[in-house]
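Quick one, probably user error.
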């Protein structure tokens, strides 16, 4: 393994497929998280070891773009690395390859090193910075630090309850769940005839166990081949915004 990146191979399983027989967007995001977790484990700072110290990594913004989604039993490789750090955060890059080494997807995330007990960012351990793969090459030129405005005039709206299985070991609603809430707010005629090409999202505040979440979706463009939507996730009955996102859907 090149010291500047970490490779993880996956074989797509039956339960990871959507109704059309390809991996779902939430599956891809799950595999990206799994590759990142294994990368942490490889330097002896697994998420569970960090959790014993009341420390974790929290995603505050991210981007994913898929040229196509892999099929059942297809093998893919996720290459992941860190492109830059500050004292409390790091940018994780990802490229997804098929078995022929073609690039089928790219992703990028801004992660904060987080004190779970105090509920605030904390300084990244020097040992992590010393041992982790690092390369200033970027997987995508998407600016994931750019603000995505919330929408207050949605074309579609759907509610979800926050259950215990929606939260992770940091006691946050897992970012995969936010993606699921966004995707499920898309009208059926779009979900059936288009695929999620890209999502650019920002996480603003925490959603808590037992709360009701409202997923708001607004049409941004209405072209035949590409559809663009703006999304806002907020808690019911309040002005508290948990997340914002922009998605692009391409004709199948």
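Nope, works fine. Designed sequence:
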């Amino acid at each position: 393994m090149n010291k500047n990146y970490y490779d993880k191979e996956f074989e797509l399983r039956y339960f990871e497929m959507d109704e059309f027989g390809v991996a779902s967007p939430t599956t891809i995001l799950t595999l990206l998280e799994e590759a990142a977790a294994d990368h942490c484990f490889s330097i002896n700072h697994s998420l569970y070891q960090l959790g014993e110290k009341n420390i974790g990594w929290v995603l505050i913004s991210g981007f994913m773009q898929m040229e196509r989604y892999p099929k059942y039993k297809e093998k893919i490789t996720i290459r992941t690395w860190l492109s830059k750090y500050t004292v409390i955060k790091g940018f994780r890059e990802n490229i997804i390859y098929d078995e022929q080494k073609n690039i089928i997807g790219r992703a990028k995330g801004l992660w904060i090193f987080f004190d779970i007990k105090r509920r605030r960012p904390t300084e990244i351990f020097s040992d992590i910075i010393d041992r982790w793969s690092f390369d200033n090459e970027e997987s995508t030129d998407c600016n994931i630090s750019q603000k995505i405005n919330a929408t207050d005039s949605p074309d579609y709206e759907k509610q979800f309850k926050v259950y215990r299985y929606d939260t992770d070991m940091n006691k946050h609603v897992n970012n995969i769940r936010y993606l699921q809430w966004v995707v499920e707010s898309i009208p059926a005629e779009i979900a059936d005839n288009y695929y999620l090409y890209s999502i650019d999202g920002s996480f603003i505040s925490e959603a808590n166990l037992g709360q009701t979440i409202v997923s708001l979706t607004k049409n941004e463009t209405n072209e035949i081949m590409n559809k663009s939507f703006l999304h806002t996730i907020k808690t019911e009955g309040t002005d508290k915004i948990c997340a914002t996102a922009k998605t692009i859907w391409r004709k199948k």
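The helical segments are 25-42, 47-51, 126-131, 175-184, 188-193.
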